[in-house]
Design a protein that fits this description.
CATH topology of one domain: Deoxyuridine 5'-Triphosphate Nucleotidohydrolase, Chain A
Radius of gyration: 19 Å
CATH architecture of one domain: Distorted Sandwich
CATH superfamily of one domain: Deoxyuridine triphosphatase (dUTPase)
Helix content: under 10%
Largest sheet: 4 strands, antiparallel
Number of strands: 11
Number of helices: 1
CATH class of one domain: Mainly Beta
Length: 144
Amino acid sequence: MLKVQIINRSKHPLPAYATELSAGMDLRANLSEPMTLAPMQRGLVPTGLFIALPSGFEAQVRPRSGLALKRGVTVLNSPGTIDADYRGEICVILINLSAEPFVIEDGERIAQMVIARHEQAVWEEVEVLDETQRGAGGFGHTGV
């Protein structure tokens, strides 16, 4: 188990895994009053959470599938990345893609967060890349 330091300045419990095999933990809105997103409006929603990730890890903020399907609300910069050296409040950029206003209530589950290991690349400039079966084909190249 990876230990991550967290400060909870919200009125809500810490994020937790819903099931034994869940990859993500739900993030909740930390609001003093409800927040309304009009159709096609985006907004920054605070969570009241602050974390310190170990080096080599990031937190990915992703949409909740139920919120996206049922209400048309998603995370705009999906997935959003929280770097290991960030110490500010975790906030979520939501956008309402539906035709109806969406009211965000305090404590509402607005996104999910996945903690993931990552590597930093060191560029190695070359003149030619190795050949593959796919080559430069992309954007639907491999079939229908």
